[in-house]
Design a protein that fits this description.
Layout lengths: L7 E3 L1 H26 L9 H21 L2 H8 L8 H20 L11 H21 L4 H34 L5 H8 L1 H11 L2 H19 L3 E3 L7 H26 L6 H6 L3 H10 L5 H4 L5 H12 L7 E3 L9 E7 L18 H6 L4 E3 L2 E2 L5 H10 L22 H7 L3 E6 L8 H7 L3 E3 L12 E2 L2 E2 L1 H17 L4 E6 L23 H20 L7 E7 L20 E4 L7 E3 L3 E2 L3 H8 L4 E3 L15 E4 L4 E5 L2 E6 L3 E9 L5 E5 L5 H17 L4
Helix pairs in contact: 1-2, 1-6, 2-10, 4-5, 6-9, 14-22, 19-20
Amino acid sequence: MKKNTKTIERNPLYVMMSKFLGLYLVVGFLLRIVLMVLSPDDASYTFGSILRLLSIGVLSDFGTGLLLFIPLLFVYLGLNEWKYSKVGGWFIELLLLAGLLYTLCCHSIFDEYGGGAPLIAKAFLSWKLFSFTLRFLLPRLRDTWRKVTLYATWGLYVFLFLFISMGEVIFWQEFGVRYNFIAVDYLVYTNEVIGNILESYAVVPLLIGVLVATVGIVFWNSRKTRFRLTKLYTPRLLAVHLGCYTVLVLLGYLIVWATHALQSDNQYVTQLEQNGICDFCIAFQSNKLDYDKFYPMLPEAEARAIYRREAGLDSNGRKTIGDSLASNRPNIVLITVESLSADFLTRYGNKQNLTPTLDSLMDKSLVFDRLYAVGNRTVRGLEALSLCIPPSSGESIIKRKQNNMGNLSVGMVLKRLGYHVQFFYGGDSYFDNMGNFFGRNGYEVIDRKHILPENITFANIWGVCDEDIFHKSLSVFDADAKQKKPFFAQIMTTSNHRPYTYPAGKIHIDGDPHTREAAVRYTDYAIGQLLREAARRPWFANTLFVVIADHCASSAGKTSLPIDRYHIPCLVYAPKLVKPAYIDKVCSQIDVMPTVLSLLHLRTEVGFTGKDILAPSFRPRAFMATYQDLGYYEANRLTVLSPVRNVRQFTVRPLSDGTFDEQSVNQIDGTLLRKAEANYQYVNLYLKAR
């Protein structure tokens, strides 16, 4: 029997929408299964939760898929014959030519965006003018050109979707969430991010595989279907198509809104039932959060009063720390280590001996055993350590244009006391706006640009290796000491970051040398080298070293704020200045520098929220936050403030393995809630950059 090989011509919009939507749902379903398999051990999926996330996930993908067809609508509108008429064609020619001349000869609106926007505009308009001119003047090219354009558009949709799905797997392994504000932030720093991807993964084989899959999918779906290229619609039919599509877009929006409003007690389930592309768009749109519109509010007078009482501030928002100001002012070196979770250290349960240097320092240092990071990004840790305030909602203060915090910063405080104040970073300090922030707040910024090429022994896309930035720091400290002035330096490391590359021959590691564990071991080795070199300097005896993480290696957990994923190490090492001890108090990154200033008897007036952990009046508590969820932890209860004016509280019970059991409570503790509200409300609304 002869097979029917007849091809059918169909409306290209219908073909692309139906075929792509089917692919989108199938791949989205499979992607969720892959992400479930790759989830951490604490994900604890039940049969019911799996059924829920897969069902809601398909619905979420369906809604997002409908919204993704909006660009196709503009392609569809362009598939008309009127534009090739004599009047219409010359009008479009003149319009495109005027637009191109505007971008080439004038200071255009695209120049306001900076970066690659002007170049992209010029390239786009040049191409549109060239392509339309050919089609307008050479009618025989039109059908072929339209066919190539439509198949290229279809292929681009499939390619980008498959590539983004592969990226979601990588992102999930790194952060334990779907695309979110971190992905949005990384778009700004394409050089580092693309370089990181190229150094960390086999990108070329991946791209080839995705390209082959794209060609195969488009070819398979085109076997018996061809695009109709001419006479696609009459004005009346176009109106019908637009009406139907408007209904589909509204349906997609409602589905997405409904599915993304759902929450589960297990955050892994919440993440997996959502759509990564949609989450990315939501994060992009809500890059800034107006606190008073999204979070629960107290009357201003009450919020100010509670905040000042809890922070120990007077009516002017100031307080005095330290008990004297001796002529001998010790040097302070604050080493902020990239992604150093507490559980990498032997004291906190690690069995791999990853940090022999830090482990050996424990009994020689003042150690804060229950100290918590304020966030899950480097800028959050730097913000906490330099400003000593709870985290802001939305993006960090460091990344904002209005980030001059006047006399609030630690740098300004110590500069007033006669210190050289410096910030060291092994990469380019434009990343995350670090250079701008520290430069405006009392610090001299020293980054990769200040290291001579011959002094760089190893570097990757994130910057020079930790040894190189430590060597640079030592040379600057020697110069500072010769001027007979004390110095305060904050050093931000980079080596403990994917792609986890570092100088060869420095450490012994079994297995893959490019793992997080190997990078932690190298950073620990580099810190040991720094301290040994410093011990040979005459200024060492009068120097205090603080070793602390910026944040944990991972912040994902069953709840939005899993407390154990915010637990970081903090050691204060100064053999001649500080007595070793282990401090078993819940405390925060924002308390570290006020404690150091008090330890060194540096009497000064400050506006910090953070307090001296060693003071008898210190009340154990910690602040921790994601991009949107703001947490306050006190008395084994975690209060979480979320958009839109949502409040949750959890009882927190420590477990024997170092993790915590967090159980939601029905009865909110009003006192703890008001403390959380007051602190975050004050920092976000009343503590203005100046």
